[in-house]
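Changelog-adjacent note: as of this version, every example in the card shows the full chain rather than a window. The one below runs 117 residues end to end.
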Amino acid sequence: MKKLILTLTLFLASLAVNAQGIITIEKATSDVPVEQWYVIRDKDFNNSSFFYAKKDVAREELKRILSGDDQSIEFPKGKDVDGDDYWIIMYENEFTSYLYLIQDGKTEFWNIIMVTK
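Full-length structure tokens:
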């Protein structure tokens, strides 16, 4: 089951990053790659992928992902408890990805967080 989820996440993310691959970092406090998908090797972050970039780059990356599901960045499914926009992609194999676009504090950088269940 874990292999299937990881394979699905890797496949989707590899399409979105133009074959750059996904980097694995050891813990959440590590330096994160900029403008590249990464995962964190920690049980608290299972099934989660991240993309960290300046706002315009993060929005373009999210647009690319959502366009594959005929969705628009302009129409999120809703807001989470913190007021961050989120989108939902449902796959034929019954997996679902939740995508969040979150500003990193008061910096010019934003995170896309993809959680697949």
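Structural remarks: Strands lie at 23-25, 37-40, 48-54, 78-79, 85-90, 96-103, 109-116.
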